[in-house]
Amino acid sequence: MKKETLLYDMLWYIQNKKEFTAQELADQFHVSVRSVYRYISDLADLGLYVESKKGRNGGFTVLPNQILPPVLFTEAELFSLYFAIQSLTDYEDFPFKVNTITAKEKLLEVVPKEVKQKLRQLSDHFKLSIPKQAVSAPFLNELITASLDHKRLNLCYQSVKQVSQKVVDPIGIYASNGFWYLFALDQERQEPRHFRIDRIKQLSVTEEVFDTSFKLDDIEADYEPQEAVKLVAYLTEAGVKQCLENRYLHKGVQQYQNGRSELSLLIDKSDIAFTAEFFLLLGKEAKVTAPKELVELLKEKIRELGKIYL
């Protein structure tokens, strides 16, 4: 085994063990105890420091505030990292104030020259495209920190119809279609809800710690509305494609052998206003027949548009 590879393996092993003896390290890597002391000195030159303990049960303890061990990436993994970073440039706001331009340049500086050249060439032929961030999203750092610390939040939230005060337990944040969202347990409703972060007008983090079984992965779970109403809409071929791309509606798309397609599923009554905005965007590609409240809301919005254009 090459010395560089041996040192790298030792670095990982020691960082994970935290405490070890020279004999233990010698047995693990099939080297002499004398060689172990020499390798420990080499690791100190790389920034990893250990403290020796005297006595019968002596050995070594890794000192705190150590460097992270270097990580070896394959060329394919480097390409994936580079273009993942590039895809984030469409978001003006990002947790932890990540500078994606600087991050890409740092990655290019540490890769071999031939890999750097391939990355720059590939950028002319490959792009990960996502919707650009539509509006500014404040409080991203505060929200992700509160989620990690399990701290309850007080929100002043501007929904489509009104401004309201919310007490929520933050589960996590995510980006979708150019918007940032907070996934949190609404204390009043006692159910997880999605909040557009750009609509949060004020935020205060309390000292109250919560415990929850919900995780961010639960946003992919089947939605169970509290006050269910049935949504039914006839769809054109283009309407089917649009609904299949919608993370909340795609499961309700039904396509029949006679060529007819429809959308049929249960939604929460409180989501009617949000759903109306989606069907306005679909235009003539969908015709909603139920619930009655959604049909009336769509008619009202069409009349309002008519006052502007007709």
From TrEMBL:
Signal peptide: none annotated. InterPro entries: CBASS_pafABC_assoc_protein (IPR051534), HTH_11 (IPR013196), PafC-like (IPR028349), WH-like_DNA-bd_sf (IPR036388), WH_DNA-bd_sf (IPR036390), WYL_dom (IPR026881). PROSITE patterns: WYL. Residues 139-204 form the WYL domain. Pfam families: HTH_11 (PF08279), WYL (PF13280). SUPFAM superfamilies: Winged helix' DNA-binding domain (SSF46785). Residues 9-59 form the Helix-turn-helix type domain. Coiled coil: none annotated. PANTHER family: PTHR34580, SLL5097 PROTEIN (PTHR34580:SF9). This is DNA-binding transcriptional regulator. It comes from Enterococcus silesiacus. The lineage of its organism: Bacteria, Bacillati, Bacillota, Bacilli, Lactobacillales.
